[in-house]
Amino acid sequence: MEQLSNPMYVSLYETYLKMQESYTFYYAPQMENYLDLETRFENLSRLKLMAGRAQYQKGSSTAEELVWDTLDSFKLDYGT
Which helix (H) or strand (E) holds 69? Predict the structure, then answer.
């Protein structure tokens, strides 16, 4: 770092080192289909949340009922 002359790069490198010390990083599993699984999970999550929001806007359920219903739905889909 002492060899860097540009203050922007020094600041960037210092930030990088601080992050390495302070944060815990998540490393995705080394699976060929990981990105596909993650994308499907995100899409399904959005669909479920949008459906719950639509039900709430119609007034068919309370927010708390919809939260629990959505959680139960996730549990069924993901086996937990």
Answer: helix 63-78
pTM of the model: 0.58
- Give the C-alpha separation, 53 to 21, whole Å: 40
- Secondary structure, 3-state, 47-59: HHHHHHHHHHHHC
**Contact, 37 vs 58, CB < 8 A?**
no
DSSP secondary structure letters along 19-68: HHHH---------TTHHHHHHHHHHHHHHHHHHHHHHHHHTSS-HHHHHH
Residue identified by tokens 């068919």 is 60
pLDDT at position 80 is 59
Identify the band that residue 22 occupies on the pLDDT scale cut at 50, 70 and 90.
Answer: very high
